[in-house]
Amino acid sequence: MAGKLGKSTETMLVQAGRGQCPNGTVNQPLQRASTILFDKVSDLDQAKKSRFDTGTVFYGRFGTPDVFAFEQAMSEFEGGAATLAVPSGLAACVLPLITFLKPGDHVLVVDTVYEPARTSLDAFISRNGVEVEYYDPRADIAPLIRDNTKLIYLESPGSLTFELQDIPAITAAARARGVLTMCDNTWATALFCKPLELGVDIVVQAATKYIVGHSDAMLGLVTVADSALHRPLREAANWVGYHAAPDNVYLAARGLRTLSARLTQHQNSALALAKWLEQQPGVAKVLHPGLPSHPDHAIWKRDFQGASGLFSVLLDATDRDTAIRFAESLSMFGMGFSWGGYESLVLLGDPAHARTATRWDEPRQLVRLHIGLENVDDLKDDLAAALAASVQK
Ligand SMILES: *Cc1c(COP(=O)(O)O)cnc(C)c1O
User: Fold this and answer.
1) What is the DSSP string of 148-166?
2) Cα separation values, 352 from 168, 311, 325, 360, 370, Å
3) For 242, phi and psi rounded to 5 degrees?
4) How does the average pLDDT of the chain come out, rounded?
5) How far is the CA of 184 from the centre of ligand 1 (A)?
6) Which CATH superfamily is domain 259-390 in?
7) Dist CA 154 CA 182 (whole Å)
C-alpha cells in the first residue's frame, strides 16, 4: 500500500507528525497545559481570534502542539483534511451528531451500531427533536433517505455480529441527495479500511482500541474529508467542553508507531483461530468477514485491506450456562469490555436487545473474542480446553 507521498503506510506511520520535535527528541514531548502565557495583550487577542484554528495555542482545552502533531499524523493516515482528538471513542461518535443535527432533522443509523452510541441517540439526540431511524446494515439505503435526512451513520463491520455494509453504494446514494455520512472505523483502522476513500465524509473511531493498543488510555478521533467540516466540529467540541488529555494523546501517538506490526499479528492469529474454530465441535458458526463462509466476504475483499483481531463465535449451545462455562474456562482470555489491546479477551454477547430495524432471533449463544498478541498455539490450546470443558456430551 502506498501512502499519500508514495511511501508505504508502514513508513508513513513511523514518520507522520514527527517533523517539528524540539531538541532532537524522537517523540513529540508531552505538554500538559491549562494556562498559556502571553507577553502582550495583542498576542492574547490574536490567539483568541484564531482559537479554532488547528495549531493555535490559546488555552489548554483547545489543544497543545503535541496534540496538533498527532492530529496531523492521523489526517495523513486516514487520507483526510483534518482530525480532532476528543476524550473518548464515544465522544467521537456523538460529536458529529450534536454538530450537524438540528430539531426536525432525520438521521439514519445502522442497526448494528456500537451499543453505547445507540443509547446516546435514543436517550439524548432524539430528545432534541431529531428523528432517529435505524436501518438494516444490508438495506438499500436510497429509498430510506427523506427530504429532511441530514446524516447517515455507518459502522462496518457491525458491533458483535459483524455484518458489512456496502459503503460505496451508501455514500453514492447520500451524495446524490446532499446527505452527510459518518462511519465508525474502529474495527479496521485506516490500515485495513479507508472510509474517506470510499466516499464517507466523517470518520470516527475509538483510538482507545488499536491505536493506543495497550488498554491503558481513552481517546476518540474525528477525521473529515473536507476541511469545511472541521471548523463546526471544533466549535461544537468547545461548546460541550471536550478536551483530549495530552497524556492520552501521547500514548495514542506512541501506539500509532507500532500499529502496523501489532495489527498484522492480530490479523494473522485471529484468522488462523477463526478458521480453526469453524471446524471445532461445539462451534456452530464463526462471524468473521475475512472467512469465505461470511455472507459479506466479497465486500470485505473489495473494500478492506485486512481484518483485525475481533470476531464472534456462535456456539452450538442455546443455553447461557454453556457459554458462561466456556468463557470462565478460558485462562488466557480476560473478561471485560473494550478490546484492541495486546491481550486476548472474551465477552458474552446478546445482540437481540440492541436491534430494532432487524431481528436477531438466533437462539445459539454468541461469544465475542479479541485475539491478542499471545502465541497463537497457546490461544488455540486454551480455546480447545474451554470448548471441551463447556460442551455437554
Ligand atoms: C469501543 C468503541 C467505541 C467507544 O470507544 P470508547 O473510547 O470506549 O468510548 C466506539 N465505537 C466502537 C465501534 C467501539 O468498539
Assistant:
1) TEEEEEEESSPTTT-----
2) 28, 17, 21, 5, 21
3) -60, 145
4) 96
5) 9
6) Aspartate Aminotransferase, domain 1 (3.90.1150.10)
7) 6
User: How far separated are the first and last CA of the chain, in Å rounded?
Assistant: 48
Distance 112 CA to ligand 1 centre (A): 13
Fold of 9-257: Aspartate Aminotransferase; domain 2 (3.40.640)
Active-site positions read 61, 114, 184, 209
3-state SS, residue 347: strand
Q: Which residues line ligand 1 (CB under 6 A)?
A: 88-90, 93, 114, 155, 159, 184, 186, 206, 208-209, 218, 220, 338
Question: What SS3 class is residue 94?
Answer: helix
Here the contacts of 120-125 (C-beta below 8 Å, separation 24 or greater) are 120/90, 120/93, 120/94, 121/97, 124/94, 125/94, 125/97, 125/98, 125/101
Q: Give pLDDT tens digits for 218-227.
A: 999 999 999 9
Mutate to test the pocket of ligand 1, among 165, 209, 338 (most ligand atoms within 8 A of CB): 209
pLDDT single digits (tens) 312-358? 999 999 999 999 999 999 999 999 999 999 999 999 999 999 999 99
Mean pLDDT of 46-74: 95
How far, in Å, is the centroid of ligand 1 from the Cα of 282?
Answer: 30
Which residue's C-alpha comes closest to atom 4 of ligand 1?
89
Domain extent listing, the chain: 9-257, 259-390
Q: Return the C-alpha cell found at 145.
A: 433517505
